Amino acid sequence: MSIAREAYRALESIVGPEHISEDPVTCRAYRTKSYRRETAYETICMAPECVVMPKTTDEVQRIVKVCNRYKVPYTPTSTYWYATSSPKKPNELMIDLKRMNKLEINDKHMYAIVESGVVYGQLQQEALDRGLYTMVSGGGSQVSVICNHINQGWSPLNYRTGLIGRRTLGIEWVLPDGEILRLGSLALNEDDYSWGEGIGPDLRGILRGASGWMGAMGIVTRLATKLIPFQPERLEPTGISPDTTLMLPQNRIRWYNFNLPNRESLERAMYELGWHEIAAAATKVPVLWRYIARAKSKEDFWRLWSQVTPEEIASTHILRILVVGYTSEEQLDYEERVLMDIMERLGGEFRRTKPSDESWIKNADSAGMWWMTGGYVSIEYVIETIQHGVKQGVAIADLKKKFVPPLVNDFGDPGWFQAVELGHGDYSEFLTYWDPDDKEYYKADQMYLETMKLNIDKGFYSSFLNAQPIWLTGPAFGPNYHLWQIRVKKAFDSDNLSNPPGLECYDEIVERSDHLTRDWEKGSMEEVV
Amino acid sequence: MVNPPKLEQYQYDMERCIHCGGCRWVDHIYTPGVRFGVKCPSIARFEFDEYAAYGREEIGLALLKGELDYSPRFIDAVFQCQLCGACDAGCKRNLDLEPLLTLETLRARCVADGQGPLPAHKKVADNIAKTHNRYGSPHKNRPQWLADDIKPAAKADMLYFVGCASSYTATSLAQATARILQASGAEFMLLGGEECCGYPLYATGQVDAFIKQMERNLEALKKSGASTVIVNCAECYKTWRVDYPKVLGKSTADMGFTVMHIVEYVDQQLKDGKIKFKNPVEMKLTYHDSCNLGRLSEPSIYWEGTRGKYGCLEPSKEYRRGTYGIYQPPRDILAAIPGVELVEMYRHHENTWCCGAGGGVRDANKDFALWTAQDRLEEAQDVGAEAIVSACPYCKENFSEAIKNGKEKLKAYDIVELIAQAMKVRGGKR
Ligand SMILES: Cc1cc2nc3c(=O)[nH]c(=O)nc-3n(C[C@H](O)[C@H](O)[C@H](O)COP(=O)(O)OP(=O)(O)OC[C@H]3O[C@@H](n4cnc5c(N)ncnc54)[C@H](O)[C@@H]3O)c2cc1C
Ligand code: SF4
Ligand code: SF4
To answer: What is the value of pTM for the model shown?
Structure first.
C-alpha cells in the first residue's frame, strides 16, 4: 500500500525529492520502538507508508493541507520517546520534524523560541550560558522541548519554575486542517513571543490541558518558553561516559538527602519547605531508582535488588532537596539553616549525596531507568496536592500486589512524588517494570486499566487522560469531560487525520487486545457531534 | 580458530533499541547547544532515520526476521556510516547494548549475502590482495619512506608497524615517528614485507579477506619475535588491538603481544623524563580525538554466555563503553610543548565527531567524508584554533583536503609532526 500518487507528488513538490521517502527501508526505520515493550500500546504501532521532512512552518502548513485535501492521516514526530509518535493506522504519513531545529534566545525578555527538533540539553546549555535556566523533562535531555511543553513537562525543578503551562509563551500552531493559529502576543505581532495569554480565551488550555493531545491536534512549529534567572557560577562538565555529570558550584547549589521517620513526616516536610519558601526542588524518589543509580550493570542491579527487604522499603522515606543560592551565597546559607531546622524538628536523618547533577538540571536521562528489566511504563501521573499524591501512591502500590509477579516487586513503594510550585501542588508518578519476555507480560496492561478504575472508585484524579479510554474515564471525571474533548477534536479535525485514532486511541487498544476486556459503555464520537 | 561476530548475536540488541537518540546527540553534559550538538555524522548528513544507529538496527532486525529485503536504499543506509562508534559510546552511557557491533556485523552480512562490497571497497580489497596495500602501489615501494638517517634494528622487541598511509602517502609521518623513537633511544625493528593491517577490509564487511590478512600479519609478527607493536596510525592501532582478538574470539590480553600508539610511548617517555621538548611551537591548537584511538581503542574483552530473565547475562559482560580510550596522552603531550596553547572543541573524548574518513566512507563517498571533515573544521574555528591536530594519518589527510576545498584558514597536523618539531628531530614540520 502507499499514499495516493497525487498526494505524494504534491508533498514532493513542497519539500523536494530529497526530503520525502516512501522507500520500505525508510519507512521501516521509522517504526518507533519504545520502552513500553510488548504492551498493548506498542503492538498497535506500525511503520508509516511515507516520511516527509519539512524545514519551515510554511512547509508544515502546506503538508497538512495536502493531507486534508487527499485525506491522508499523518503523525508528527520529533524525538520519538513516545510510542504515540508511531502511526497506528495503515497508509499514514509521518512528518519528521527533526530538520526544524532553530533556537533563538531573547536575553532581554528572558525567553527562548524553539522549533520542534531542539532538545532540552541544548536549550538548557544555552540558558545556563546566559545565567538563566529552565526545567528539563525527567524523561531526558534528548527530548524535544516543544513535545514536552505541549504534552508533559514534569520535573522537580517545577517546584520553583512553576508548571510548564505557565511558562509557555507565544505559540505558532498549524491546526489539524492546516490553518495557522498564533497564540499570545504572536496573535498581534508575528515577531513578538513575549506573552502567552489571550487574545481572548487562553487557547493554551485547548492545546494541552493537563497533558496534551499527543499529536492529535495538529503541529506546533514554534513555541516560546520563559527562562528563569539562575545563579552565576558555571556548572562544570566532568567525566567520561558512562560517568559524566556536571559539578555543582558548592557555594551556590547543593543537594541534601534526608531520611525521614515515616511517610507523614516526609509529606509534612514537603509542605514546610514551601511554607518557608525555601529550596529549588523537593522530591521523593522510588527506592528502586536509588538501586538503579548505584548499580554498575543490569546483573549488578539484580544482585543488589535481590537483597532488598520489605522492611527496608517501609523504613526508607528519603526526601531529596535541591537548594540554590539564586541571588547570593547568603541566600543558600539562609535556606540551608531553615532546612536544617525543619529537618531537626521532623527527625530527618542527613545522608551524604554527591555534589553533582545526578539528574534534573541538565543530566536528565531515563533511558536507563527501564533498562534493568527491559520493560517499563508509568501507570499513572498526576498533578494534584501533596496529600493526594501520597494517598494515591499508597493505593496504587496496594493494587500492584495483585500483579506481582510478573511486575517487579518493589514492596509497596508508593512511587515518585514531589512538591511543585512551592508546595501548592504535587506531581506524582507511579511506575511499573517487567520483563517483556515474561509470558504474562500483558499484566502490565491489565494493571494500567485497573488503576483507572481504582482512581474512579476512590476519587483520585489523573493527568493521564490523553492515554486512557475516554469512554471509561471521561464520564467519571466529567461527567461530560470526554464529550467536550470529542467536540473540540471534531471542531478542529473533523476527518480525524491528525495522529489517529487520537482521542480513542486507548479504546482501540482495548478492543484490539486479547488480554483486556471492556466492561464499560462505549459511545460513538459521531453521535456526540 | 576464527570466530567473527555474526548479526544473529545482536538480535536482542536490535530489539531492545528504544529510539531514544542517545546515539545521535552529544552527551547532554557536554552539549554546547544546537550547533555541534549532534555526534553521528550519518544522521546529520542524510537526516532520514535509516541513517542513524537506531534506524539501521531496525532495518537489520527486519532483515534478520525476513521482513525486509535488500535494496539499493538498504545498502546505502548500511554503508553511509563511518563506523565511528559515537553511537556506541552514547548508547552505552545508559544501556548495555551493542550498536556498533550490530552495524559491523550488518555490513558483514550484506557482503556474505552477496550484496557487497561496494565497488570502491572491492577495489581496495583487490589492491590489498595484489599489492598488499590499499592504494594498489607496488609492494616493493613500501619501505621507500625510510630516509638515510633512520636505522631500524634487524631484531628488536619493539616492532614499528608503519601502515599503508605512512608508508605511501604520508611518508613524513613515518619518518617523524621513526626519528622520535630513535631520538628517545628506542630500538625498533620493521616487519620485512609489511602488509596492510586489514582495516579497510573489516570496516567494509569483507571479513573473509580480513581474516586472511590478519593471519598473515600475525604470522609475520610471530616470526619477528617482537612483543610490542608500535603504530602511529589509529586505524592500525584499533585493528591490531581490538579487531584481531575480536575476530579470533579472544581478549586483547590473551594475544601475547602489546599494541602501542606512538602517543602512549611519547607520553610515558615524557613523564619519565626521557624525552624533552626544547623547541617551542607557537600555536593555538585543538586536538581531534580520532575515533579509532579514542572511544574505539579499548581492548577487546571476549565474552561467551547466556541471557536469562530480564535479559541478564551469565556471566556478566564487561562492556566496552569508550571510557578507557587513549584520550589523555595526546593532550598531555601537546600541553607539554612550549608555546602551544591547547583549546578543546565541544565534541571531544568519547563524544568526538569523526574526521569523516573512516569505515570506508572516504573510498566510497568522498563528498560525505569531506562534508564531515568540514563540520569538524568549523568547530575548530569556532573555538579559535589555528590548527587541528590528530593522531592518525587518515584524519590529517581528510582534514587537509577539506581545508584545501574550503574557506577555513586552519592548518591540519599529525601529532608526530609537532612532537618531532618540539624534540628538534628532523621530520618535524610547520
Ligand atoms: C522513560 C520515560 C520517562 C519520562 N519521564 C518524564 C518526566 O519525568 N517528565 C516529563 O515531563 N516527561 C517525561 N517523559 C516524557 C518525555 O519527556 C516525552 O516523551 C517528551 O516530553 C516528548 O518527547 P518525545 O520524544 O516523546 O516526542 P515525540 O515522540 O516526537 O512526540 C510525542 C507526541 O507528540 C506528537 N508530536 C511530535 N511533535 C509534535 C509537534 N511539533 N506538534 C504537535 N505534536 C507533536 C507526536 O505525534 C507524539 O504523539 C518520559 C518519557 C519516557 C519514555
Ligand atoms: S542505539 Fe541505543 S542510544 Fe540509540 S536509540 Fe537505540 S537504545 Fe537509544
Ligand atoms: S558509527 Fe558513527 S556514523 Fe555510523 S551510525 Fe554510529 S555514530 Fe553514526
So the answer is: 0.97
Q: Do B18 and A33 touch (CB under 8 A)?
A: yes
Write the residue with the smallest CA distance to atom 33 of ligand 1: A214
**Positive or negative torsion for Cα A339, A344, A349, A350:** positive
- What is the percent of chain B with per-residue pLDDT over 70, rounded to a whole number? 99
Instruction: Tell me whether residue B113 is exposed, middle or buried, using C-beta atoms within 10 angstroms of its C-beta: 0 to 12, 13 to 18, 19 or more.
Output: exposed
**How far is Cα B152 from Cα B162, in angstroms, rounded to an integer?**
12
Question: Is A300 within 8 Å of chain B by CB?
Answer: yes
Q: CATH says A243-372 is which class? A: alpha beta
Q: Quick check: B313 and A298 CB within 8 A? A: yes
3-state DSSP helix/strand/coil percent for chain B, to nearest 5? Answer: 50, 10, 45
Ligand nearest to the CA of A120: 1
The yes or no reply on domain A103-229 and CATH 3.40.50.10490 is no
Give me the interface pTM, i.e. the ipTM: 0.96
* 3-state class (DSSP) for residue B383: coil
At A184, is the pLDDT very low, low, confident or very high (cuts 50, 70, 90)? Answer: very high
Give the chain A residue whose CA is nearest to the CA of B314: A299
Give the model's confidence band at B307: pLDDT under 50 very low, under 70 low, under 90 confident, else very high.
very high
Q: Please provide the distance, in angstroms rounded to a whole number, between the alpha carbons at the two ends of chain A.
A: 32
Quick one: closest CA in A to B54, which residue? A29
Name the closest residue on chain B to residue A30, using Cα atoms.
B49
Q: Measured between CB atoms, does A29 come within 8 Å of chain B?
A: yes
Q: How far is A266 from chain B (nearest CA, A)?
A: 30
Q: Does the beta-carbon distance from B73 to A125 stay under 8 Å? A: no
Domain ranges, ordered by start, for chain B = 1-116, 122-271
Interface test with A, best of B27, B29, B46 (most A CBs within 10 A): B29
CATH topology of domain B1-116: Fumarate Reductase Iron-sulfur Protein; Chain B, domain 2 (1.10.1060)
CATH number of B122-271: 3.40.50
The residues facing B38 across adjacent strands are: B25
Chain A interface test: which of B11, B19, B54, B61 (most A C-beta within 10 Å): B19
Cα-based distances in Å from A349 to A7, A254, A256, A262, B29: 65, 17, 10, 11, 31
Chain B contact for A102 (CB, 8 A cutoff): yes
Question: If DSSP codes are grouped into helix, strand and coil, which group holds residue B389?
Answer: strand
Residues B157-181 have pLDDT tens digits of 999 999 999 999 999 999 999 999 9
